[in-house]
């Protein structure tokens, strides 16, 4: 065991007080190590995970009583925090009616109302909603929509996808093929995944030559690509980079000119995270297909949605398949739809529009002093997103332990220490998150 791992374990949940609680925690962690495979890691894991007993507001309570401010919104989903009364009530009320019913041949009010709500909130033209299980599956559905529509329109040779470097779209196979092919986490699958068309990564500032290169790429490959897929304004797990929104306009104009569909993956950027309701709103453009997930239910249950225009839906429906060839078992789950509607209701109240700029200011104030510090390559903030990029890969164990010592939960990766806190995070807690990032950067 490395010194860094010993430091991490010393701060972990098993360091709680002795007695029944400590014994129960130790038993759970032993069972976890024996049976539970955690994401992006080996079996068993290299580092002992922190054992969470409960969560409320913006705090995670660990075994032993230690509390941590959640700087990650549970992978960007818990935007309203934990145990929110409105979301709890929606979940309990729906559970008293029905928890699930198959969506083939049946429908129900939570799904119908949610689809109507999403169509009303989405960029213009996105009128049709396919409800699915998770963000990655919503991307699979979007790709399937584009391929089926092109085939139905008499262009079956258009089977490839185009995107730009630095993106991330999920861990299932077709989404992996449009993640960054070299720097992404899916390079292991090179030679197995479909080969797609990639432009260079989008610059943070406007670059006329890059815009021209995007247009040229689409024109040059229009005969073989079904769609262009990008994350608007913010590239998430591919590197937490921000880009100029005007590139979205360039993509919209070029794809429309050549009969190529435009897909916006708003799984990370949707529902206010960037300071606008959707990332697309920064550019004032509408895609043909849009993917939503993560914060859709406020972090309560897994649910995603793929929205499309009438033109896409009509092409697919008139095609040889007679409809979209997809149908998850838990599609339109009533519990998830009910809590998603409650989450959207909270967002419609508009409080996020005041809180996100305040979080942005707090993160700027707290993180800008790190610019130029030893080991720091860049600092960037947009909306409720704060990123410190190091000039080396993070020592995840040491960085995590340093943040925990500050009372903050972070999940660094590659060369990045970042935060996406819940929108209800107060100013003092935002300052503590920034302090946790500073400590993590110094330690990692």
TrEMBL record:
Sites of N6-(pyridoxal phosphate)lysine modification: 294
Sorted UniProt keywords: Aminotransferase, Biotin biosynthesis, Cytoplasm, Pyridoxal phosphate, S-adenosyl-L-methionine, Transferase
UniProt-listed Gene3D superfamilies: Aspartate Aminotransferase, domain 1, Type I PLP-dependent aspartate aminotransferase-like (Major domain)
Pfam families given in the database record: Aminotran_3
Binding site for pyridoxal 5'-phosphate: 135-136, 265, 328-329
Start-end of Low complexity biased regions: 9-23
InterPro entries for this protein: Aminotrans_3, Aminotrans_3_PPA_site, BioA, PyrdxlP-dep_Trfase, PyrdxlP-dep_Trfase_major, PyrdxlP-dep_Trfase_small
Residues that coordinate or bind substrate: 75, 168, 294, 327, 411
Stretches for region Disordered: 1-23
Pathway this chain belongs to: Cofactor biosynthesis; biotin biosynthesis; 7,8-diaminononanoate from 8-amino-7-oxononanoate (SAM route): step 1/1
Subcellular location: Cytoplasm
EC identifiers of the protein: 2.6.1.62
Catalytic activity: (8S)-8-amino-7-oxononanoate + S-adenosyl-L-methionine = S-adenosyl-4-methylsulfanyl-2-oxobutanoate + (7R,8S)-7,8-diammoniononanoate
GO terms assigned for molecular function: adenosylmethionine-8-amino-7-oxononanoate transaminase activity
Main localization category: cytoplasm
Residues marked Participates in the substrate recognition with KAPA and in a stacking interaction with the adenine ring of SAM (site): 40
NCBIfam families, sorted: bioA, PRK05964.1
Alphabetized HAMAP family for the sequence: BioA
Family: Belongs to the class-III pyridoxal-phosphate-dependent aminotransferase family. BioA subfamily.
Oligomer status and interactors: Homodimer.
Protein name, entry field: Adenosylmethionine-8-amino-7-oxononanoate aminotransferase
């Amino acid at each position: 065991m490395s010194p860094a791992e010993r430091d991490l374990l010393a701060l972990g949940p098993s360091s709680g007080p002795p007695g029944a609680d400590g014994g129960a925690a130790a038993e759970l962690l032993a069972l976890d190590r024996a049976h539970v495979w955690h994401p992006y890691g080996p079996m068993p894991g290299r580092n002992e995970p922190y054992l969470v007993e409960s969560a409320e507001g913006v705090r995670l309570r660990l075994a032993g009583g230690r509390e941590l401010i959640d700087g990650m919104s549970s992978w960007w989903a818990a935007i309203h925090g934990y145990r929110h009364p409105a979301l709890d009530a929606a979940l309990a009320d729906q559970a008293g009616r029905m928890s699930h019913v198959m969506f083939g041949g049946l429908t129900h009010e939570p799904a119908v109302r949610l689809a109507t709500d999403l169509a009303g909130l989405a960029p213009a033209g996105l009128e049709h909603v396919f409800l699915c299980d998770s963000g990655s599956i919503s991307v699979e559905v979007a790709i399937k929509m584009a391929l089926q529509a092109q085939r139905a329109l008499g262009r079956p040779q258009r089977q490839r996808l185009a995107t730009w470097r630095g993106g991330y779209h999920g861990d299932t196979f077709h989404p992996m093929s449009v993640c960054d092919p070299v720097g992404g986490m899916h390079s292991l699958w090179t030679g197995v995944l479909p080969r797609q068309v990639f432009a260079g990564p989008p610059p943070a500032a406007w670059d006329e030559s890059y815009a021209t290169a995007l247009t040229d790429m689409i024109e040059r490959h229009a005969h073989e690509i079904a769609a262009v897929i990008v994350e608007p304004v913010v590239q998430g797990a591919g590197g937490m980079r921000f880009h100029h929104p005007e590139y979205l306009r360039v993509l919209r104009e070029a794809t429309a000119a050549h009969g190529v569909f435009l897909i916006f993956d708003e799984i990370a950027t949707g529902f206010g995270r960037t300071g606008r309701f959707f990332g697309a709103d920064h550019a004032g453009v509408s895609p043909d297909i849009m993917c939503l997930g993560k914060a859709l239910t406020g972090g309560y249950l897994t649910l995603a949605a793929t929205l499309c225009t009438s033109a896409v839906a009509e092409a697919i429906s008139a095609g040889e398949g007679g409809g979209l060839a997809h149908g998850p078992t838990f599609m339109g789950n009533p519990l998830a739809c009910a809590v998603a509607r409650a989450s959207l209701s909270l967002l419609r109240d508009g409080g996020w529009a005041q809180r996100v700029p305040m979080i942005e200011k707090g993160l700027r104030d707290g993180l800008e002093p790190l610019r130029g510090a030893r080991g720091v390559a860049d600092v960037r903030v947009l909306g409720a997103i704060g990123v410190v990029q190091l000039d080396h890969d993070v020592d995840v164990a040491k960085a995590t332990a340093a943040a925990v010592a500050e009372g903050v939960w972070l999940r660094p990766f590659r060369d990045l220490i970042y935060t996406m806190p819940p929108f209800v995070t107060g100013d003092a807690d935002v300052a503590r998150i920034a302090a946790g990032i500073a400590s993590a950067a110094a330690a990692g």
